[in-house]
Design goal:
Helix content is 63%, strand content 3%. It is mainly alpha-helical. The protein starts with 10 loop residues before the first helix and ends in a 9-residue tail after the last helix. The structure holds protoporphyrin IX containing FE (2 copies).
Length: 176
């Protein structure tokens, strides 16, 4: 049992964090769906787009929640290299949750399709003019970033487990 009381992140930060983790999991599990829909192999809702757009919608609340609430200290405090590594990984993850869905939206538009918002059945026609060849570039970028972030997310999750089980500090408990 720890000898100190853990101060947690504010509940909106924790709620948004775990909701994001679930949405990313869903986006990864359904990453082949857009293709299947295009090829007429699947006619249900596009869970990939639904999860990605929900993640994008969470961006403003995420930033507000972080800016308006306090970040609790980690007890006992980690080494400086560890704090720096966490900052870099966090920055990468924050960029990912906005850049990856935006690339997805641009990808759909670059194919000349309207973006159909799942469950709401709203179709948003292409709002930016994308040049010739944009489709291939965006598709590659979206896939590359998606693949690269398996590693970043794994690093982030393993670091959290390392803090909890090996270093035995309250990094993870602050987020639960
Ligand atoms: C965090 C959110 C997202 C993640 C992690 C993600 C991840 C991925 C990955 C890994 C693939 C590649 C699948 C393959 O290997 O072929 C993919 C494909 C795709 N994604 Fe996403 N995606 C996200 C959000 C979005 C959003 C918001 C949209 C559209 C609004 C979107 C549209 C697409 C489309 C159209 C494809 C198929 C590309 C193709 O033609 O090969 N994605 N996504
Ligand atoms: C799957 C996608 C994930 C994303 C995008 C993500 C993103 C983030 C971000 C942006 C932060 C900084 C706090 C904030 O602004 O909310 C954070 C903190 C944290 N995450 Fe995640 N996370 C993910 C998954 C996980 C998983 C699976 C675990 C646990 C095994 C985890 C454990 C933590 C912990 C303990 C913190 C606090 C770290 C600190 O205060 O330095 N995260 N995460």
């Amino acid at each position: 049992m720890p000898q100190f009381k853990t101060r947690k992140y504010a509940w909106p930060v924790r709620a948004i964090h775990w909701l994001s983790a679930i949405l990313i999991l869903v986006a990864y599990l359904t990453s082949e769906l857009s293709e299947e829909i295009e090829e007429g192999e699947y006619a249900g809702p596009d869970w990939h787009v639904a999860a990605g757009l929900s993640l994008l919608l969470l961006f403003l609340p995420r930033v507000l929640a972080r800016v308006l609430t306090r970040t609790p200290p980690i007890v006992p405090p980690p080494a400086r290299w560890s704090v720096l590594a966490a900052k870099l990984t966090t920055l990468a993850l924050v960029l990912f949750v906005v850049v990856q869905p935006v690339l997805g939206v641009l990808l759909v538009w670059s194919e000349g399709h309207a973006l159909v918002v799942p469950f709401l059945d709203i179709a948003i026609p292409p709002m930016v003019a994308l040049g010739h060849g944009a489709e291939d570039t965006l598709e590659e970028a979206h896939e590359l970033l998606g693949n690269a972030f398996y590693a970043v997310i794994a690093l982030h999750a393993l670091a959290a487990l390392w803090h909890h089980f090996a270093r035995r500090d309250d990094t993870l408990r602050r987020m639960l």
